[in-house]
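hiii so um. not sure if this is the right channel but i have a protein structure encoded as tokens and i wanna go backwards to a sequence. like what aa goes where. can anyone help
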């Protein structure tokens, strides 16, 4: 048989990969991870959920997320496994569907713990697959895939608002589980790229020395995790406390709608400006947005705050993870996600003592943590290696 007659391997288009990755991130993060925020008030009102148990369920999700990120570091093969991605998506859908089946706090804790671990694995695997497949020819499309998180937040938020008007907290969970199942079906064909070199060769691979920049990036992303989760936990409540009417309940939808196009915008900007400089800019904007409701009352500052937070929190992740991938540090996405998730566990612990007088001091603390992240990102800018060659094998 002639070589020209051999069947060529099927290759996916760049936009197909973007849609699949966006669906995975929408299911894993936008719905599986963040839908608890708009459903929480319904559970307080209708299911008798106490404030203490509500906080514990949020903590369970953070702990599970950290465990999932650590699994991505301890077992590198998981990050390259399509089966692990699909299994995690299925677990995520099941944990959403099972939340209304019980009123037991321990069962809820376990379900949110598993949901956190599954969402972390979905995020690490989907982002790694997407970055590796788009790096060579279509890196400018990465932002559209990350926009799936914002789409998931906005869609699940709208569903919860619609269900809230006509039905119960149980229906809210089941409706969002159905949405996650639909997104899972869209994401199902996404497959990580196989490792390009054998394990024996990888041990001899010579990588560029980029650890100085990566450590600064890791510090920045960890402090961002602290500040982001404080805002993500208390921003809606702070707005609702200061503004009457629809804005308090609708603020999370505003955040999701702002996040939807933001990643594509930041990625487009990265084609003209330095990614480390854009990371510094996005963190600075986010710090201002988080502080606004604490410093100024009224509808306009609240709306601006929701827009600025939504426009930056996923943009920061897009830029930071792209920088980590560029620096060619092994398992960069899993390492950065671990620092981010550790920050998310620490954030509520630091903010809780400040809540006795409302949410404003907590938001100012969150803003301060993002400012620290911005200072750390400034170190990434110094003599950043914008051009790196491929990994080479030592002679």
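sure thing!! here u go:
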């Amino acid at each position: 048989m002639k070589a020209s007659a051999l069947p060529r391997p099927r290759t996916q288009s760049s936009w197909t990969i973007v849609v699949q990755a966006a669906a995975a991130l929408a299911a894993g993060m936008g719905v599986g991870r963040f839908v608890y925020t708009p459903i929480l008030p319904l559970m307080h009102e209708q299911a008798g959920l106490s404030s203490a148990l509500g906080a514990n369920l949020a903590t369970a999700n953070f702990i599970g997320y950290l465990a999932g990120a650590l699994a991505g570091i301890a077992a590198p093969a998981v990050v390259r496994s399509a089966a692990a991605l699909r299994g995690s998506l299925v677990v995520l859908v099941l944990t959403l569907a099972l939340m209304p089946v019980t009123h037991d706090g321990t069962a809820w804790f376990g379900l949110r713990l598993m949901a956190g671990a599954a969402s972390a694995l979905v995020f690490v695997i989907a982002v790694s697959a997407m970055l590796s497949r788009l790096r060579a020819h279509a890196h400018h499309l990465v932002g559209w895939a990350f926009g799936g998180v914002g789409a998931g937040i906005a869609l699940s938020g709208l569903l919860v608002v619609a269900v809230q008007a006509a039905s119960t907290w149980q229906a809210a969970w089941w409706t969002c589980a159905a949405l996650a199942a639909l997104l899972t079906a869209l994401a199902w064909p996404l497959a990580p790229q196989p490792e390009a070199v054998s394990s024996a060769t990888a041990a001899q691979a010579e990588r560029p020395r980029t650890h100085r920049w990566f450590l600064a990036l890791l510090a920045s992303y960890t402090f961002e995790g602290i500040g982001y989760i404080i805002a993500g936990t208390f921003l809606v409540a702070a707005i609702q406390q200061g503004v009457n009417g629809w804005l308090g309940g609708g603020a999370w939808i505003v955040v999701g709608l702002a996040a939807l196009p933001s990643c594509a915008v930041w990625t487009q900007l990265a084609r003209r400006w330095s990614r480390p400089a854009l990371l510094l800019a996005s963190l600075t904007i986010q710090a201002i947005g988080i502080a606004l409701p604490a410093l100024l009352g009224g509808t306009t500052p609240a709306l601006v705050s929701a827009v600025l937070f939504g426009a930056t929190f996923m943009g920061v992740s897009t830029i930071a993870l792209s920088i980590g991938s560029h620096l060619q540090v092994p398992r960069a996405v899993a390492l950065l996600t671990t620092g981010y998730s550790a920050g998310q566990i620490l954030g509520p612990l630091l903010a809780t003592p400040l809540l006795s007088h409302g949410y404003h001091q907590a938001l100012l603390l969150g803003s301060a943590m993002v400012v620290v992240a911005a200072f750390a990102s400034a170190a990434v800018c110094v003599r950043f290696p914008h051009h790196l060659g491929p990994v080479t094998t030592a002679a």
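oh and The radius of gyration is 21 Å.
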